[in-house]
What we know:
The protein has about 375 residues and is α/β, with parallel strands linked by helices.
Amino acid sequence: MTKQNVVPADVVAAIAVASSYPLFPYPPPRAGGRKKYLSQLELRGGRISAWVDSMKASSPTHDKGVVALSGAPPSVDACLDEQSAWVMRHPSALTKFEHIMSASKGKQIVMFLDYDGTLSPIVDDPDSAFMSDAMRAAVRDVARYFPTAIVSGRCLDKVINFVRLANLYYAGSHGMDIKGPKKPRHTKARAKPVVFQAASEFLPMIQAAYKALSERTKSTAGVKVEDNKFCVSVHFRCVDEKSWSLLFEQVRSVLKEYPKLWLTQGRKVLEIRPTINWDKGKALEFLLESLGFADCKNVMPIYIGDDRTDEDAFKVLRDRGQGFGILVSRFPKETNATYSLKEPSEVKDFLVRLVEWNRLSMKAR
Length: 365
Ligand SMILES: O=P(O)(O)OC[C@H]1O[C@H](O[C@H]2O[C@H](CO)[C@@H](O)[C@H](O)[C@H]2O)[C@H](O)[C@@H](O)[C@@H]1O
C-alpha cells in the first residue's frame, strides 16, 4: 500500500458509519427528479424516522461514537476498498492539479468557494467558525487573478464578516442573497455592482419561523437556532443523540404552521428555507451571467464545497459540461463533484498552487 493509500483509523470508522446507513446516501436521494425536501405530506407522518436516521448519518467523522450504535460495521478491508474506489472516481484535485490546469488553458477561471467546512474547519460553535489568516491570504490572492465568489448557507452579513475581503462576490443564505464588490475588478460586462435577492417576500415569514423555532426547541439542551436571514439553521451537533427525535418533532411541529417553508439537511444541521426554485446552483449561474459568461465557451468555473447544498452547484457544472466541482470530504460520499480534497487545509494548498501556477504562466507569456 502506498503512503497515499493509507487510510487513518478515524476515516475507517467514518466509512463504517456511512456504510451502516445505506438507505441515506449523501446527498439525499432525489425522488422523480424532485429534490428531497420534507414536504407537507411527509410532515404528517410516514418518513419521519428516515429523517432522524439521516440526522444520525450526517457528518460521521465528527461522531465516532455512532459506530458502536450502528450494529455490525463493515470490515476494515471493505472500508479501505470503498475508500480507494471512491478516490479513483473522485481523485484529489491536488494530485490532478496539472491535468486541471491544462484543461483550463485559454479559459477564464471563475472560483466559487463554500465557507463552512471548506474555508473554515467544522467546529461545535457556529459563531466560532473562523478561517485562518493563511486561508484568507490564499483567497485574497486568488481573487486578484480570478473572479471569486463565496457561496454560503450563512446570511450575507455573517459570511462577509468571517471572510473580511473586499473584491469578492458573496452569495449568502444558500445563494438567496447576492452582493458583488463595489468596484468589480474582472468584469467588463457590467460596471454596476451586482445585488440580488431571490426571496425577499419570504423575509417576514422566515423571521416568524425563526422565533417560533427558537421558542419551540429551547427545552432541548445543546440546540442552537441560527438566523440566516432568508433561512434558519437548527443545529444539533451539541444535542445528545437520544434527543434528536424529540428535536425533529419540535421542528416538524413548527413547520406544519408554515406550508411555504421546507426542510433540508446539512452537517448536523436542519435547514428551513423558502419553497422557491433557488439554490447554490442557481446562484452560480446567476453570478456567471452577471460576470458576462452566460453563453461563453471559454470559461472554467471551479466550485469547492463540502455539503449537500453544494451538490446543486456541482450538478449545474456537470450538466453544463463546463468547469468542475471539488468535494471537500475525508470519506466517500455520493457526489456530483469531479474531484475531491480532504479538508480545508488542502483547499488552501489548492488555492496557493493555483495562484503560483497563474504567476508562472503570466511570466512565461
Ligand atoms: O454553505 P456553508 O457556508 O457551508 O454553510 C452551511 C452551514 O454552515 C454552518 O454550520 C456548519 O458549520 C458549523 C461551524 O463549523 C457547525 O457547527 C455546524 O454543525 C455545521 O452544520 C452554519 O452555522 C449554518 O448556518 C450554515 O447553513
